[in-house]
Specification:
The chain is α/β, with parallel strands linked by helices and 252 residues long. 42% of the residues lie in helices and 18% in strands. Strand 4 and strand 5 (79-80) form a beta hairpin.
Length: 252
Amino acid sequence: MKTLFYSLVLAFASGLCTLSAQTRVVAHRGFWNCEGSVENSISSLVNAHKEKVYGSELDVIITADGIPVVHHDDSIQGMRIEEADYAQIKDLRLSNGEVLPTFESYLQTFSTLPDIKLIVEIKPHLRIVNEDRAVNAVVYLIQKYRLESRVDYISFSMNICKELVERVPYASVAYLNGEVSPADLKTLGMDMDYHYKVFEKHPTWIQEAKALGVSVNVWTVNREEVMKSLIEQGVDFITTDKPADLNRLLNQ
């Protein structure tokens, strides 16, 4: 009887460990919240790798002449990236002194860093034709460097997500905007990547998604109590500006 009791206790403890272990860390715009780095910089990607996170997220916008660059905002120093030629912005520097990176330069560094995924957010553009151009350019470069198995995709644009589902059916494509139910995402062939407040409004969505086999990522979670709650609910990924803090919680 004692043996059976201890077996049950071990099985229960193992189940709890599995629940925690299945939540993985995504560094939001890389691990930039440290000295000498800045979001969406090459150094933030290298720092994320050093922190041993599951993935490092970045934002991509395409220039008027077809060069995808890594930047969150649609404008830089008063120039809208989508409407500027690359020559107009190529020498601009980030606040830590690094040159504004192209997506290709990001991939060149990423290809040297094993055991980490790249979470590529393709930003919404003013024109749908530019969204399609951005998808084509991003997918082309990932295939050029043979990194298909190491990249997941996310976007706020449903058009971009649909294009990606068609172009890269082997990859995870997650929608960010927060209004589509888990069942509808399943039908669309997409995963779920929503702000944590969405799940406060829809408290059943995490378990519904898990039951449907829809992957659940939650962004951008920087408060420890929210991290703990999401880990307990068994979400697949948490995107955070504090990857070291989240790693610590997961490894306690």
